[in-house]
Design goal:
There is one protein chain. The chain is of the alpha+beta class. The chain has a single domain, classed as 3-Layer(aba) Sandwich (D-Maltodextrin-Binding Protein, domain 2). It is built from six helices and eight strands; from the N terminus they run E-H-E-E-E-H-E-H-E-H-E-H-H-E. Strands 1, 2, 3, 4, 5, 6, 7 and 8 form an eight-stranded mixed sheet that branches. The longest helix has 14 residues. It is globular.
Length: 174
């Protein structure tokens, strides 16, 4: 299993060794900045937008941003720490994962701005075992509603398109 992946949006190289399953949920992808004025991606210098390893090519193509502007790191904690120390001007990744890491590390005064939603899914190996697993997962996941996810996750999805990351968890209205 490979997860989470942007369903049907990966690079051609990815699909030479993997295959998406037929299930997804909408994941919000945001930019994060220490300054609300810095969301002008076109004016950011090279090597100033951080993301996780394996995502720079994807975000570069999706957002039509030169690949040279991206830096990839291996963990969310490393990404947020580099960002908090001013080594990166912007960070981009899935909203819930980044916001939870910001809160856990207690980094204050972080601005966010949504740039879109991406269907998040999982993938399996592009071989006979992977295809058999895909068929089984596709059957099982038909019974899972994206609305059945934890209320806390839905609260993150309902946040405004831009704002300041609060260190308090969202309050469920469900």
């Amino acid at each position: 299993m490979i997860g989470l992946t942007p369903q049907h949006l990966e690079t051609a190289e990815f699909y030479s060794y993997a295959h998406d399953i037929n299930w997804s949920f909408s994941a919000h992808v945001d930019f994060f900045s220490l300054n609300s004025e810095l969301f002008d991606v076109a004016n950011t210098p090279n090597s100033s937008i951080g993301t996780l390893l394996g995502n720079a090519d994807f975000f570069s193509a999706l957002l039509d941003i030169p690949r040279a502007k991206f830096v990839e790191v291996t963990s969310l904690e490393q990404l947020v720490k580099m960002f908090a120390k001013g080594r990166l001007e912007l960070v981009t990744f899935e909203r819930i994962a980044i916001m939870r890491t910001i809160k856990r590390l207690e980094v204050k005064d972080i601005y966010y701005q949504k740039f879109g939603g991406i269907p998040a899914s999982m993938a399996v190996a592009n071989n006979s075992q992977g295809h058999a697993l895909k068929l089984e997962l596709d059957k099982l996941l038909l019974k899972v509603s994206s609305d059945a996810t934890k209320p806390e996750l839905n609260d993150y999805r309902k946040l405004p398109n831009a704002g300041i990351v609060t260190l308090m968890p969202p309050t469920s209205t469900n």
